[in-house]
């Protein structure tokens, strides 16, 4: 349990960190994970493996992380409270640590009603804050929630989410403070399309003295078209896209809207980089891993410190085996 | 009854008075007793009408702006999730407003327990469901931190 997370090292060294989201496949083939991971690995410091985001079933984050660590990649395992109670969640955390997962993002999770199984039973035994505190006590007190002792505790760099863009806006920085008190080391925010709102939020975060206690990565992503933007803001929970953004995309012909959306994302990265207290960006784009890599390149965030020769060799070996055994 | 919601200070005083009133009788306020049965009926009726009470048995009204967070579809007790729409509506039940919007506003009006909304609350003890929150609070079984959280 000695190896620390690369993401943690990058953030502690003061470098601007980049994480990216891997959209888990609807497939039982490990290759479908690796073909996406290969694109992202060279352009970021940590790959987020989502946990049935939007309450849609995909390959589990534990499964994706097992494949990623096996190939020498650095995953950020997302854990949501929607589908598992405290017994299952703690067991998964231990298993993940044993497989080499060092970063965990604690989430409440989207409601089942927003997904493809709206008739499912929502669990929500814990919430993001109590999950953080539980993971923290497993690491530091070496205990389960029940008080029972662990033989060997995990060592996690713990993260949480924040949404500075939706009401109650005034409460949002205080909710972040709660997550920091519960044990968060880093924060990844919801999509930022409204930089002034993020500036306002960060001002409050600095005033509460949180900027020194937690690393904040601003969530960013491209919008494929004005129509996709409209769809996102009505269908994706918690996404705020100002009218000006939609108008800007509508201002160019349909075939150039994707490029404009990408340019806008690059501009937002450059703007959030200037905000004091923002330590990195988290790039999300649904099933557009290549676009994510291009955005990170165009925003001038390359090269990322590599995983070293050993890591690359390990990747080649594992990925090649997986292709071979199909 | 529902109009009471607009008066968090009044509700907060009612909470404080009741607590002071019940404390001297704490030796009779035991979970599982006959007294609890009476309390359960009263709470179900009164808090049901006033707060849409779900009888979780661990009442946190005074820590959430005198607004019950259990009507949240995710039963969020530590603040709003990130799925609130920009207009303040709930991600799950889009026709209703997120309970935490009111909870936050009302907590700012409260005089004594307003800042309790900033504290980290432990997860629910599901064994207390359908019991009396008053009995659980006075006897000390409610709001206990999990043993593993102790530092």
Describe the fold and architecture.
The complex is a heterodimer of chains A (326) and B (151). Chain A is of the alpha/beta class and 326 residues long. Chain A has a single domain (6-222, 276-324), classed as TIM Barrel (Alpha-Beta Barrel). In chain A, 43% of the residues lie in helices and 14% in strands. Chain A is built from twelve helices and eight strands. Chain A has helices at 6-12, 30-41, 61-70, 86-98, 128-140, 172-182, 195-207, 226-235, 243-250, 257-273, 289-298, 308-324; strands spanning 17-22, 46-49, 75-80, 103-107, 157-162, 186-191, 215-220, 278-283. Chain A has an eight-stranded parallel β-barrel with strand order 1-2-3-4-5-6-7-8, surrounded by eight helices. In chain A, helix 6 (172-182) links the parallel strand 5 and strand 6 (186-191). In chain A, helix 8 packs antiparallel against helix 9. Chain A is globular and about 60 Å long. The two termini of chain A are 32 Å apart. Chain B has 151 residues and is mostly helical. Chain B has one domain. Chain B is globular. The model of chain B has no long low-confidence stretch (mean pLDDT 94). Classes of the chains: A alpha/beta (326), B mainly alpha (151). Chains A and B meet through helix 5 and helix 6 of A and helix 3 of B.
Features:
heterodimer; A: 326 residues; alpha/beta; TIM Barrel; B: 151 residues; 4 helices; 34% helix; globular
Low-confidence stretches of chain A: none
Amount of helix of chain B: 25-40%
Order of H and E elements of chain B: HHHH
Radius of gyration of chain B: 16 Å
Number of helices of chain B: 4
Mean pLDDT of chain B: 94
Are there runs of chain B of 5+ residues with pLDDT below 50, and where? none
For this entry, what is the oligomeric state of its chains? Answer: heterodimer
Classified by CATH, the class of chain A is Alpha Beta
Count the beta strands of chain A.
8
| Biggest beta sheet summary of chain B | none
- In spatial order, strands of the major sheet of chain A run 1-2-3-4-5-6-7-8
| Rg calculated over all Cα atoms of chain A | 19 Å
Q: CATH topology of chain A, what is it called?
A: TIM Barrel
User: What share of the residues of chain A lie within helices?
Assistant: 40-55%
